[in-house]
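Input chain follows. Return structure tokens only.
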Amino acid sequence: MKHIVGRTILNLAAALVLTAGATNGAAAQQELRFTTSVPANSFIYADILEVWAQRVTEDSEGTISIRLFPAGTLGRDAAAHLDMVRNGSVDLAYFIPGYTPGAMREATIVELPNMVPNATIGSVAATQMVEEELWTGQGMEDIKILGMFSTAPGLLTTREQVASLDDVANLNLRGAGPTLLASIEALGATPVGGLTAPQIAEALSRGLVGGTINEWVALTIFGIAEAAHYHLDVNMGASPIMVGINRQTYDRLPAQAQAAIDRHSGEAFARLWGEEFDARIAAFRGAAEEDANRTFTTLSDEEAARWNGRLQSVIDHWIETTPNGQDLHDRFQAAVTAAAG
């Protein structure tokens, strides 16, 4: 009887040890919450952000998992996502710094006309600026930047055809961020800010704006191209986009988790973003060109010179008003050239 009782006690003790071990193992894997404004059926979510999160999770030796929340399901206001990761209400966020002017002032160089040829080159060059600590932003101390991206350059999409400066005069045009808004004003149009990408289609449909500056990804996934069918092929500048993690969250992570995040961030993340983005630009534009209800316009050489003359004033103003503006401009141009390689 004593032997049976003894064995029972030993078995119970072993079971408790196994249960405790399983509990500790489960607790060791920390879930990080990642808020995004893009819908789950978009390629940005499925083929970039989710792929990145899966790679980090698999490489973290079981220490973390990353849970994505699409389409604002964790924070409906896209303009608030930067503050959410700053204050730690989420661990990671995909955010557009143009929605919070001043947050990453140096990155507004991406928005300058004719500066970025495509998303891959722009993203790799922008990442170099961050890694060389040339772009530090304001109030970004609480965030570790994991991805510094550029969209492809935006074109002008309008409700009515635009083929000259005369056509664009006094037209209400939406832009994201102060630099794009300055470009709109330089052309003689009326700049409209404060509209996030998911709000543009409705604003066009209601006639609140006559046009918008976006690339083909935004035009397609946010339904903007359904509300406006005229497209002017001008390089109006791109938009900087970022992924960041709350710095305190990152600092508290195990070394394995930090190493996994670092391996898949920076240039690796920029290339994942850029290559997927550029491939979709080609696909979305190609499909739009098959639509007989759309009109694509290219400026004449004379008209293009007029537009570029107006837009040069925006570049000059950016250099003059940005601390170390000329140096930042030259360094970024060199990074773009190197990335184009």
